[in-house]
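Appendix C reproduces, verbatim, an entry submitted by the partner laboratory led by Prof. M.T., so that reviewers can inspect both the input and the predicted structure.
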Amino acid sequence: MITEKEVKQLVESFWHDVCSGRPGSEMEHYFIGQGHVMVPGGVRMDLEPHQEMHRQLCDEVHAWKTIEIKPVWEDPERVHVAALVSWDASFVDGRPGRIKTQVQEEWLIERCEDGQVRFVLYRSPVVDFAEDSAELNI
């Protein structure tokens, strides 16, 4: 079974590259098929627009709050992951305030033939902004 350690390594590596400002085209290896993130409202955001949004931010911090992993298939090996993540960030343009959120995450992760785990689905259905959070248009 895909382990919590493997899930966290995949996700934290993805988050690191999100914060690095890399081009979306250099992040496709995290996904099976064309990479994208489903944002609130079920809107599909391809990786380059997702990266463009994050390039406007700095000092991003992701922190695990909860994680639940359930096997959903054996061949190919897949798990469904439900997590709650604290995500905070500031703006690169010096705009006042800090984004402060709790994000509900849902991922479907598969072990590929090369042994690596990759996202089949990356979905962030709910982003709850703290009362004192700066605004962010997604």
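Residues 103 and 127 are 5 Å apart (CA to CA). Additional entries are available on request from the coordinating office.
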